[in-house]
């Protein structure tokens, strides 16, 4: 009961903190608008003399959610993953979503599970807490896959536009008008960075960092090498597009050949789970040993760990990088 009360208090505090942070953020935006319009000069001067900047107040608002991320140096990695997924989330929003999912799943498991199994409510809570991160990872993979599908066509487009007499930077600017997202957005950002004064090599290196694809690294290396040594960049891009398409064909053949191994790994991993569920309904007294006895808990934990280890090993065996 004490744990439930503590969780309820924590959830209420989180909601109050979120409301207050949004209120402070809106008030800061109003102050910024009044400064730009110039209709409230005395209040703007007072705020400016107070020493509290908008960036500092925003930093205070997100400190609660990102404190342990900064401690373990995970905030930059999460922010990079969210950016690669094409989402407008922030790290503190992702962390708060995970925490809310953990609390909701734990409370739901505590209420729905029988009394003897309530201490295992942390299991659905753990899975629910990982779901937002898995959602971001899935969005990231889908976005990168879509980028790789459009990338060879964009290279040929740049090659044709350069043969028509356009400069390389102008060809990059034309990509975002001729192609779809996410390729158009990434190249538009690269062109805008270069157009605002960033050197071309630095803008391309930032593109390779935002899109962790081997094909993009090949493209950036080819452009930088041609810039230093000279050569026919249009021909290089045509050959690079051809190589990328051949890699796609080879990757598809490998996936077709290894499909049997992947299906075998999934089947072998799901069979113990199905047997456990059937045993729970047909002979619950036999299954309770693994949940109520200390030795049964150790055996269950070891079985789960070995099952996960076997699935990871089978996945790595069938995963062939091209």
Structure description:
The chain is mostly helical and 322 residues long. It has 15 helices and no strands. Helix 1 runs antiparallel to helix 3, helix 10 runs antiparallel to helix 11 and helix 13 packs across helix 14. About 7% of the residues have low confidence.
Biggest β-sheet description: none
Any idea what the radius of gyration is?
Answer: 27 Å
Distance from N terminus to C terminus (CA atoms, Å) equals: 55 Å
How many E-type strands? 0
Q: Helix count, per DSSP?
A: 15
What's the helix-strand series? HHHHHHHHHHHHHHH
Fold blueprint:
Layout: H1 2-37, H2 41-50, H3 54-61, H4 63-71, H5 75-84, H6 91-112, H7 122-163, H8 168-178, H9 183-195, H10 200-210, H11 214-229, H12 233-257, H13 259-282, H14 284-292, H15 294-318
Question: What key attributes describe this structure?
Answer:
single chain; 322 residues; mainly alpha; 84% helix
Q: What's this entry about, in short?
A:
The chain has 322 residues and is mostly helical. Helices cover 84% and strands 0% of the residues.
């Amino acid at each position: 009961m004490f744990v439930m009360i503590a969780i309820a208090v924590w959830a209420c505090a989180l909601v109050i903190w979120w409301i207050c942070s949004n209120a402070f953020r809106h008030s800061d935006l109003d102050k910024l608008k009044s400064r730009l319009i110039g209709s409230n000069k005395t209040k703007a001067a007072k705020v400016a003399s107070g020493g509290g900047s908008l960036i500092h107040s925003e930093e205070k608002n997100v400190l609660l959610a990102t404190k342990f991320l900064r401690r373990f140096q995970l905030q930059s990695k999460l922010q990079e993953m969210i950016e690669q997924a094409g989402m407008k989330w922030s790290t503190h929003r992702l962390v708060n979503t995970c925490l809310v999912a953990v609390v909701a799943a734990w409370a739901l498991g505590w209420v729905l599970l029988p009394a003897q199994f309530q201490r295992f409510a942390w299991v659905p809570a753990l899975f629910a807490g990982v779901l937002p991160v898995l959602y971001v990872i899935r969005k990231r993979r889908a976005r990168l896959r879509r980028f790789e599908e459009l990338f060879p066509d964009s290279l040929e487009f740049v090659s044709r536009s350069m043969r028509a007499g356009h400069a390389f930077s102008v060809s990059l600017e034309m990509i975002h008008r001729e192609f779809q997202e996410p390729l158009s957005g990434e190249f538009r950002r690269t062109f805008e960075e270069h157009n605002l004064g960033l050197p071309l090599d630095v803008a391309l290196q930032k593109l390779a960092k935002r899109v962790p694809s081997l094909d993009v690294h090949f493209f950036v290396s080819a452009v930088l090498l041609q810039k230093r040594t000279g050569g026919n960049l249009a021909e290089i891009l045509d050959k690079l597009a051809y190589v990328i398409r051949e890699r796609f064909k080879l990757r598809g053949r490998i996936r077709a050949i290894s499909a049997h191994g992947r299906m075998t790994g999934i089947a072998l991993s799901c069979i113990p789970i199905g047997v456990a569920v059937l045993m729970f309904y047909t002979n619950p007294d036999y299954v309770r040993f693994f949940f109520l006895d200390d030795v049964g808990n150790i055996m269950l934990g070891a079985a789960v760990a070995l099952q996960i280890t076997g699935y990871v090993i089978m996945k790595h065996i069938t995963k062939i990088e091209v």
